[in-house]
Design brief:
The complex is a heterotrimer of chains A (about 575), B (about 110) and C (about 500). Chain A has about 575 residues and is mostly helical. Chain A has 23 helices and three strands. The termini of chain A are far apart. Chain B is about 55% helix and about 0% strand. The chains are: A mainly alpha (about 575), B mainly alpha (about 110), C mainly alpha (about 500). Strand 3 of chain A pairs antiparallel with strand 1 of chain B, so a sheet runs across the interface.
Chain lengths: ~575, ~110, ~500
């Protein structure tokens, strides 16, 4: 009976069901759903496939289970479980339902065997996740949510357009290795790239995640971007352009993270940087590199949600996650502080933590491929990770100068969720065998060699030393209230300004294209509104005289066009 | 840090000592163990150590300079949105239930 | 003992033979009857029964057409081309099915007494006009004679003007007048085109006409005739920029009338256009000699955008739906202008899908107007909580307008985009997808108002109840249909594909 249902569909339907439940029954259902999903996945063998033919000539593979999708599937279910527990205290029913349905559509997308099925779930992750931002119920969050939705839907539209072009070229809808080289496949690449937050396409990530609710950003951090990583690994493994793209992704967010004041936005930058490591791994494309990417995604989902949970707890209790207003919180939130430090150690890839056993595979793959520059960049970025996630997050939130704030320790359910994630961060660092066994290719890799341990510790410990020296010399930039412009600036600022000038001058086709931006930006909206909102000239039918004249003109135009 | 850091509390002093000791051990270890270098540059003595130190310092320096380019006042986007509605502070919306209710009332 | 039963069966069989004409005659007879009974509910029962019977007959005929190919019925026994022939093939039976189904859904369910300018006691007139309009539309659809199409066109148009004018809104009369003027111009163009064809060939039977046209050498007269027919029908169909009559007509008519007209009148005009382009003139002549795609393609794309953008800014939900209709008509004509089988399938299947969605939406608006007394979007704040079933259906239809997978809208857009790509019109495929984003915006406006805004203090949106079951039933029937036909496409898209093959002459 289990096999008849696509993986993930349970969670989507369960999310809808949960809207109508209350109290402990609701909690029980929410917790049971991801567990049930994981059990189902365990029962499905690799090579399992489910097909559906709705139109003649179009065969859809709704479910396809293999090793690559399986490892992502398990960690998605795990992340869903942790996020559910973390958000059990939330009274707003919409949030948990949206979250679990979002996780479910993410899982279902992992097991899509054809591009159209992928598109369907791809869009559903966008639609379900936007509620996690909307649930904040502020004016600012609502506007962010709309921007987020437009970007995400745009990614889906590109995916669909690319799929159709690809279908026209090859007659195949299958989602396997694609590679670049035709318009259709390039469009699909860009669609994946938007969700994977490629450089300059990353604005939505730093824009949206910090605006979500305290629990919402935990959900958000796990699924959307890793789904894109999975899709890239499936379709574009070994595509060389991914290596420079990934390198830029690992490097440039670290500079922004240094001066960003909103700690959840720091985490969003850090997330982007981590995605860079995975993208590099996909670009290298060897078995070791792809194993490393999958392992790193697995470990990353856990420690990144742990960090987002810690900051979520701080936001929930202290009311802000601005570095300039926090400090000294370890005194009243010792457990949260401990878990946060564990997450920080894991993301910085200290030995005995999960980041070490996963990230070193990607670095080794770069070394084995003799990519010396790439290796140095990744090493550099590792120091960057330590800076913003390893030191900045725990230091400014829980230590630094005392803000005088003494918020209560996080609620029990939050502590349990963080505890599970923290335990897994350490567990995967020590007992990495089970994770390695899950990886898509056979693993022949030992993370703990003396050389690895010593070099990694040298890098990290001396970087910490640098931090202390800079602090001592008062050279470390102080935390200051500010808005840091990122890639989201491009669609938040110049787009409207250009739109007004060019939009009036050009023909209506251009105007309508800018019309999309109108939903986002009130400025252009103002111009269009004048034209289209009644009694504007295009929003109100014309009187009969001109209307009849149009008919006559059209007739003449048509006849002329036939004769010439 | 703008605040005065010159007086370091005792517990922090203890952690500092641990850190310095670790540094020393790692310097020694660099010459004791074979590092299996893949690249020529890894053969330099203490390569990872000084690379980590330099990278960190570089990141912080560039970050500090970047502030001159990309830092704006906190209500930057609100001011330039052409929004008739006043920009509302949103950081306390998701806090505790009471605060969230208060936020609800403020919604239009 | 079995004799009477056998008699009865054989007489029913004899009756079956006459179904092709009864489909038109029955509602035409029902109309005066409704007028004479002078009792609203009795008239409703008569009109409703006639509509349901029509629907049943069309279903039976569709079965026959699928089996036999073409069903031809000679009026008065005169053989065509001398006599008038009612000719059922896949495409017009499919359209007749939509028309009769919408009539069967709209007529039997109660009217909002406040929506009409006539007193409730005289509502029998309304049903009489409904029946007449349905008779005219069905006649247009099934007849095989071009002049006969014109006659039925005028019957259906005159009754449609009446239906619009009978609305209680003050501006209903003005918009009916504008509708009448433009409709008459369209009808006149059509008539001139028919006359020119008759002058060239001496026949009015469509099949005969298409055969004789092959010998006509005067390209000039032929293209004028084609242009006349095309522009005339474009006015009836509300192709951008000839759509100016439509927004006000749909806005100020009673919502159920809008539901009926939106789902049927433009659809039948679209069918006649298909007939003229593909059957009478033929694909080759229409596209290669007349360069039809050169004019229809840009107009369709413009309609998709102008309609959707105008819809975004409307303050009145009926107006919003009316402008959205113009965009949706753009998708249908896009299907023609792509000049490929997939494109045509997309156009035809969208005809069906749009009838389901827009019919359902206007019926939902009828529910809103009935309870809320207003169709202004700003008055609908927080209505999602008070009228969850109505607004839930609106959401389902809205997702269909966007083209979300799992709804009917996705199926049509799929075929349209595939058709565009088959013709290497990548830009058109892209624009089709982009225009869907605009639909996201105007559907989102409704969602935001209904669920994410709070009803203002003291407004009636705070106190209204859910619409009565009798009004919700047809809405949800259509909502479920829009989901069902989004998943199971065998009937809608399957028949549309066969119909397209028949029209293109590529039937296997």
């Amino acid at each position: 009976m289990f096999e008849a249902v696509p993986p993930g569909l349970f969670l989507v339907l369960g999310g809808v069901l949960a809207l109508f439940l209350r109290g402990s029954l609701r909690s029980a259902v929410l917790i049971a759903l991801p567990i049930l999903g994981a059990v189902q996945l365990a029962l499905l063998p690799n090579g399992f496939s489910m097909q559906w033919q709705p139109f003649e000539g179009y065969l859809f593979e709704v479910v396809r289970v293999d090793a690559l999708s399986r490892v992502f599937g398990y960690v998605f279910y795990l992340a869903a479980l942790i996020s559910v527990i973390f958000s059990l205290h939330v009274k707003d029913t919409m949030q948990q339902s949206a979250g679990i349905a979002y996780a479910g559509s993410g899982v279902a997308a992992l097991f899509a065997g054809d591009l159209v099925t992928l598109f369907v779930w791809w869009e559903l992750t966008a639609v379900t996740s936007v509620f996690l931002i909307l649930a904040r119920r502020t004016d600012r969050a609502t506007r962010t949510a709309l921007r987020y939705l437009v970007v995400q839907v745009l990614s889906g539209v590109l995916l669909l357009a690319g799929t159709l072009l690809h279908y026209g070229e090859t007659g195949s809808l299958a989602f396997g290795a694609l590679g670049l080289g035709s318009l259709g496949r390039d469009l699909i690449f860009v669609a994946f790239g938007i969700k994977a937050a490629f450089p300059l396409l990353n604005g939505w990530l730093q824009d949206a995640y910090p605006e979500a609710t305290a629990t919402g950003s935990v959900w958000l951090s796990s699924f959307t971007t890793k789904l894109a990583i999975y899709a890239l690994a499936r379709g574009y493994a070994g595509t060389e352009i991914l290596i420079p793209i990934g390198c830029v992704m690992t490097v440039f967010p670290v500079f922004f993270a240094v001066i960003e004041n909103d700690l959840r936005r720091v985490l969003a930058y850090s997330l982007n940087n981590q995605l860079g490591f995975m993208v590099v791994g996909i670009g290298i494309g060897t078995e070791l590199a792809l194993n490393g990417t999958a392992a790193h995604a697995f470990a990353h989902i856990l420690y990144k949600s742990l960090l987002f949970m810690a900051m979520g707890a701080v936001l929930y209790r202290a009311g802000t996650v601005k570095a300039s207003e926090l400090g000294g919180l370890y005194k009243s939130m010792p457990w949260t502080a401990t878990f946060c430090i564990i997450g920080a150690a894991a993301i910085s890839a200290f030995p005995l933590f999960s980041g070490f056993t996963s990230k070193s595979m990607i670095l080794s793959a770069a070394a084995e491929g003799h990519h010396d520059v790439v290796f140095l960049i990744l090493l550099f970025a590792s120091a960057g990770v330590l800076e913003h996630s390893g030191i900045k997050i725990p230091y400014f939130a829980f230590f630094a100068h005392d803000s005088g704030k003494r918020p209560k320790e996080a609620p029990k359910n939050m502590l349990v969720a963080m505890g599970i994630a923290a335990a897994l961060c350490i567990g995967l660092g020590v007992f990495y065998g089970p994770l390695y066994a899950l990886l898509p290719y056979r693993v022949d890799y030992t993370p703990y060699t003396m050389a690895h341990i010593v070099t990694q510790l040298q890098l990290l410990v001396f970087a910490i030393l640098a931090f202390l020296v800079l602090q001592k010399l008062r050279l470390y930039p102080s935390e200051r209230r500010a808005t840091i412009l990122g890639a989201d600036w491009f669609y938040r600022r110049p787009l409207p300004a250009i739109g007004v000038r060019v939009g009036i001058a050009c023909a209506f086709v251009y105007l309508t294209l800018v019309g999309m931006a109108a939903a986002i930006t009130r400025r252009v909206g103002h111009v269009l509104r004048k034209l289209y909102q009644p009694p504007g000239p295009l929003g109100e039918p014309w009187p009969t005289g001109p209307a009849a004249l149009v008919a006559a003109i059209l007739l003449v135009v048509y006849l002329v066009s036939v004769y010439v | 840090m703008t605040s005065n850091e010159s007086s370091i509390p005792g517990s922090a002093r203890k952690w500092l000592r641990v850190l310095f000791a670790t540094c020393a051990v790692l310097v020694v270890a660099d010459f004791v163990f074979d590092k299996h270098p893949h690249f020529g540059f890894e053969k330099l003595p203490l390569f990872h150590a000084w690379f980590g130190f330099a990278a960190f310092a570089f990141i912080v320096a560039v970050g500090a300079l970047l502030r001159f380019v990309v830092a704006r006042s906190e209500d930057y986007y609100e001011r330039h949105n052409g929004s008739q509605r006043s920009a509302m502070p949103s950081e306390d919306a998701e806090v505790e239930p009471e605060a969230r209710e208060a936020e609800d009332h403020r919604r239009v | 003992m079995f004799a009477p039963l056998a008699d009865w069966a054989s007489s029913l069989e004899a009756l079956t033979e006459h179904f092709p004409v009864l489909v038109v005659v029955l509602p035409m007879l029902a109309a005066p009857l409704c007028f004479l009974v002078r009792h609203a509910n009795l008239a409703r029962a008569i009109g409703g029964l006639a509509a349901v019977a029509c629907f049943a007959m069309v279903v039976q005929l569709l079965g026959r057409v699928l089996d036999e190919g073409v069903v031809s019925y000679r009026l008065g026994g005169w053989p065509p081309p001398l006599g008038i022939e009612y000719r059922y093939d896949l495409i017009n039976t499919f359209v007749a099915l939509i028309v009769s189904a919408m009539a069967a859904i709209v007529i039997p369910f109660g009217q909002n007494p406040r929506a009409f300018a006539v007193p409730p006691g005289r509502h029998n007139v309304v049903y009489a006009v409904y029946a007449l309009c349905a008779a005219g539309l069905l006649g247009m659809t099934v007849t095989g004679d071009l002049f006969n199409i014109y006659v039925f066109l005028e019957i259906s148009s005159l009754s449609a003007y009446t239906l619009v004018a009978i609305g209680s809104e003050r501006r209903a009369l003005m918009s009916a007048f504008s509708y009448l003027t433009m409709g008459t111009i369209g009808g006149l163009f059509f008539l001139i085109g028919v006359g020119m064809l008759y002058q060239m060939t001496g026949t009015l039977n469509i099949v005969d006409l298409s055969e004789r046209l092959a010998d006509v050498s005067s390209v000039r007269t032929l293209s004028v005739a084609f242009a006349m027919l095309f522009i005339g029908l474009s006015i009836k169909l509300a192709v951008f920029p000839l759509h100016q009559w439509l927004p006000n007509a749909y806005t100020f008519a009673p919502p159920k009338v809008s539901a009926f007209l939106a789902a049927t009148a433009t659809k039948v005009a679209f069918y006649v256009m298909l007939r003229v382009i593909f059957t009478i003139f033929g694909r080759e002549r229409s596209f290669e000699q007349m360069n039809l795609d050169r004019i229809l393609l840009p107009l369709s794309v413009a309609a998709m955008f102008m309609g959707s953008i105008a819809a975004i800014y409307q303050l009145n939900i009926k107006r919003l739906l009316a402008y959205s209709s113009i965009a949706q008509i753009g998708y249908m004509t896009l299907g023609i202008s792509l000049n490929s089988e997939s494109g045509l399938v997309g156009g035809i299947v969208h005809l069906f899908n749009h009838a389901v969605m827009k019919g359902g939406l206007f019926l939902a608006v009828a529910c809103i107007l009935f309870r809320l007394g207003s169709v202004k979007i700003e008055d609908m704040r927080g209505l999602g909580r008070r009228m969850p079933w109505t607004m839930g259906a609106v959401l389902i239809f809205g997702l269909g307008l966007i083209g979300v997978p799992g709804t009917v809208g996705f199926v049509s857009k799929w075929y349209l985009v595939v058709g565009a790509i088959e013709r290497d019109l990548h830009v058109v495929a892209f624009l089709t997808l982009v225009s869907s984003l605009l639909a996201v915006v105007y559907v989102w406006r409704l969602v935001e108002v209904a669920w994410f805004s709070k009803a203002s203090e003291g407004s009636s949106a705070q106190t209204v109840r859910e619409a009565p079951l009798a009004m919700l039933l047809p809405v949800w029937l259509l909502a479920l249909a829009s989901l069902w036909f989004g998943i199971s496409t065998d009937h809608s898209a399957g028949i549309a594909r066969l119909a397209a093959q028949q029209l293109l002459g590529t039937a296997p």
